[in-house]
Amino acid sequence: MSKVVHFEIPADNVDRAKNFYGSVFGWELQTMPMGEGEYTTLKTTAVDEQTQMPTEPGAINGGMMQRTSQIPSPVITIDVD
Asked: Are 62 and 9 within 8 A, CB to CB?
């Protein structure tokens, strides 16, 4: 069965969203430059240091970026053959 493997959250106010998700859920956030803006990785669970894949079966991590007309709503990535 195909599984959800990643999610992305676009936000109008990224700093406010980072504060919310970091404090409410305890997610680990890391912001880096991406193109003309920034991308924040959302670490919701521990990862294997070699593969950077979640160590807990079924767990996923995600990302956050500025909402745009091209990405107006959350993005869900599903692993398929």
From this structure: yes
Please count the CA atoms within 13 angstroms of the CA of 47 that sit on its side-chain side. Answer: 14
What are all long-range contacts of 33-38, with beta carbons under 8 Å and residues at least 24 apart?
Answer: 34/65, 37/65, 37/66, 38/14, 38/65, 38/66
54: Cα within 13 Å, side-chain hemisphere: 14
Closest Cα to residue 60, out of 34, 80, 41? 41
Non-local (6+) Cβ contacts of 77 within 8 A are: 4, 5, 6, 7, 8
Q: Whole-prediction pTM value?
A: 0.86
pLDDT at 66: 96
